Amino acid sequence: MALENIKEQDHIVKYLKSILRKDRIPPMLLLSGRKGTGRFLAATMFAKALNCANSIGDCCDKCKSCVAIEHNVHPNVVVIGRDVDVVHIKDIRNMINASFVPVNNRYRANIIDNSDKSTPEAFNSMLKYLEEPPERTVNILIAEMAELLPETIRSRAVELKFRPISAAFIKETVKKTGLSDEDAEIVSKMANGSMEKIKLFSSKDFLKKRKIFIEYLLKFFLDEVIVSKLLDEWNNFSSNNSSMNNAKEFFDILSTLLQDIFFVSVLHDTEHITNVDALGFIADKFAFVDRSKLHKMYDVVLEKKQALLTNAIQQYILLDGLFKIKEVIK
Ligand SMILES: [Zn+2]
């Protein structure tokens, strides 16, 4: 795979190829944007292109250097912070200690994934290193929330903002795996601009369980299902996939359903709903929905989503939110 193949981010591919061709590499790049938009892929392809033996302005993906980077064994490329919740000072120190003069007279690339999750000590250590960057070294920071980086670091970087992936692109991509048009539509909307979970979302098992769970949620809104039963169903749905077992995912689904009910019942808009397979149920059972109640429920969801950002007791916040919603329904 080459830079050329990174989808839906033409502005970034164009920029990276131009600095490669001119051999004008800034000491720090910040790749910002949500997960699943190609940030890490772009960082890796760029590191390959900086060291590729065969091509200028992109990578060949076949030479010894490209293969070494792909397998994370190239001396010029260090990756830290991959799949972690926190980047610690020891990670930054390991990176700095590995920062020798690049071999083959090419470029060293330090890729710091999840850089926005660094501890204050890690940021300090990073800053000291970045204040006097070694020659022919590019530090590539990846961040979902770039605003969490200290201004002293962010201001030193050339920031490349990754755009959300379009629903149309995601729909076409998953349709190629054999999904029906309706399922592909659901997946493209659930994905919310990110390719991160589309493999999970597109599995037949997931789609089936999701449909059952959505029905329970709708019945919950109709006051036909109690909180504990709903939580049991959530556990049934989410137990087999670790990326779905947190409260945020629950509230995400819940808010898309509330939006759908609002679209269908209040705006009479069936075009823009997320859970297209629930359209019949919503049109049938929620024809005369109380608008102020919908707003109140939505407010609870927003409040609880906010609380999740700062509080560790996720399951309690979820439970509390559901009881609050139940009060509104009654
Ligand atoms: Zn190559």
Q: Biggest β-sheet, characterized? A: 5 strands, parallel
Structural domain tally: 2
User: What general form does the structure show?
Assistant: elongated
Beta-strand content bin: 5-15%
The helix tally amounts to 15
The overall average pLDDT, rounded, is: 92
Relevant CATH superfamily of the largest domain: P-loop containing nucleotide triphosphate hydrolases
Unreliably modeled segments: none
> Ligands in the structure?
zinc ion
Q: How many beta-strand elements?
A: 5
CATH class of the largest domain: Alpha Beta
H-E order? HEHHEHEHEHEHHHHHHHHH
What's the N-to-C terminus distance? 55 Å
CATH architecture of the largest domain: 3-Layer(aba) Sandwich
Radius of gyration: 23 Å
Strand order of the largest sheet: 2-3-4-1-5
Structural class: alpha/beta
Give helix % range: 40-55%
Kindly report the CATH topology of the largest domain: Rossmann fold
